[in-house]
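Hi all, long-time lurker, first post. I run a small reading group and we've been trying to get comfortable going from sequence to structure in the token notation. Rather than ask abstract questions, I figured I'd post a concrete chain and ask someone more experienced to write out its structure so we can walk through it together at our next meeting. Sequence below, copied exactly:
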Amino acid sequence: MNERETTPPAGPAATLRKHYIALLTPLILTHALQSAGGLLDGFWLGRLLGVRGIATAASFFPVFFLLLSLIIGLGAGATILAGQAWGARDAAQVRRVGATAFVAALGFGFAVAVAGVWCTPLLMQALGTPPDILPAAIRYARAMLLVMPFVFVAWAGMSLSRGTGDALSPMWSLLAATLVAAVCTPLLVAGTPLGPAGVAVSALVAQLAALTVLIWRWQRDGHPLAPGAGWQDWKPSAAIAKRMLRIGLPAALQMLAMALAEIVLLGLVNRHGSSATAAYGAATQVLSWVQFPAMSLGIAAAIFSAHAVGAGRRERLPAIVRTGLRLNAVVTALFAVAVHLLAPFALRLFLEPGPVLEQAVAVVRTVAWSVVLLGWSNVLVSAMRASGAPLVPALLSMAAIVGVELPVAVALEARFGLAGVFWACPAAFLAMLVLHGLYYRHKENKDGLFPQPGAALSAAVGRTRSA
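-- Answer (accepted) --
Happy to help. Here is the structure in token form:
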């Protein structure tokens, strides 16, 4: 088995922090590449098609987020199970997890593509898409839905790779995808009759490029997931699928609740016209830049926690959590400050100076600082999920979304108009952090947070020694 990251970090806090940063850096760069791809798409839509192009893409974003919640949940389960197998040095189990994840991703992707294409007109109308962009929004949504199988499979592959501690391969894969999209998007949007739908065709080519690079790096490095390595182990497993769903379903439900909240927020924004929709879409693109360190820290906490569980070293979990919380206070906060200061300049990449740009800047500056709260929650939730407690943290997140974010958005929109809608995000992030912190403390006081039964510990240690 490849020995690059066979065991979770150990030793003093400085050593753990060094391991965190080594994994965190490519994770952040990976999310930066994802955001760069979105910014490039927004830039070309805005420059080539104007505000209507930005509004067309923004009208589909909550739907895309809704569908992506499925693969995010599957990816969370795949990352954790692959990480536990990696920590136990069980290459055969890594491949079984990989086979199960790929089959599930492909199946979900095709189901979404087939069902979604038929429902697109009704869905866009139900979202309250402004009439002047409705036909273009329907074409764009249908094209994006047809690309979903490739998006799902690529996401599953990158999740599995991260679970084994290899965050560099997904980073290089996304770099290839970003470069391909940077060339294809303007050619397809401006040079063909596809218009905004050209973004979807570009995304298809980009996903194929990402998968090609990912597989090439696995083969080059002798990774257990490389095609042809231990081919007899590449068998989907119903037992693994059940465990993957047990871990991933709560994460998917949490993302689903967030997606539904985005749909409600978009509905409130759409009532203010297509200019407000364009401001919302542009702000979303820029806000992703402050969110990716918070998301990366959650992924890193999940990976290290899964490695510790697989190696039978659960006593490392509290230190993993503490280090993630401290790094978030520095890294995510720096990104929040940078986005706050640079928002007017970043938004000019795809919005002309004027009222729409000013609205987008106000949205970014309202939400950016609160992402630090989200980062702390992500670390707590990810560690608890990897250690076998996925359900309650997800339910608490959903409670914050349904019980805080949506009522606050509706109430403040009625009182302050469009500006009030976006204060719901900081309110929800604060509620999540309070609820997750209280549950973390409860588990810590009740059973040491991450209890380790003696039999399971012995089995894990036995697997590690025999690997």
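A couple of things your group might point at:
The CA atoms of residues 25 and 344 lie 26 Å apart.
Confidence is low (pLDDT under 50) at residues 2-11, 450-467.
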